[in-house]
Amino acid sequence: MQNHTPETQKSVRKNFTMADEAVRDLDFLAEVLDKNRSQIIQELIRKEAETHRNELRLAKLKQMKGWFSGAMGDQTIQSIKSERNL
To answer: What is the model's pLDDT at position 1?
Structure first.
């Protein structure tokens, strides 16, 4: 099985419309960064998607906060160790 990176995956052509100002900004970024429009769009989409994925992961971790301490009840590590030594 091959491991495809975004750069080696098959291209898919998608047409979309955008405001003139957005096109000017896209052209500006392409010129300044010495990349083509598609590269700029792909990078921005990947960055935005990764940001949202990380936010979702963080929210899930925050929901889990307390699960592990709550599973032990009111016991502390020291009290567990002392009970084990009895």
So the answer is: 43
Q: How many residues belong to the chain?
A: 86
Note down the domain range covering 49. Answer: 20-84
6 contact partners, CB below 8 Å, separation of at least 6:
42, 46
Q: What is the pLDDT of residue 11?
A: 81
Distance, in Å, from the CA atom of 74 to the CA atom of 80, rounded to the nearest integer, reads 10
Residue 36 and residue 58: Cα distance in Å, rounded?
33
Q: Based on the structure, what is the number of domains in the chain?
A: 1
Q: Is residue 66 part of a domain?
A: yes
Share of the chain above pLDDT 70, in %: 78
Please determine, for residue 35, whether its predicted confidence score (pLDDT) is greater than 70.
yes
Within a domain: 4? no
Residue 66 falls in which region: left (phi positive, over 0), alpha (psi -120 to 50) or beta: left
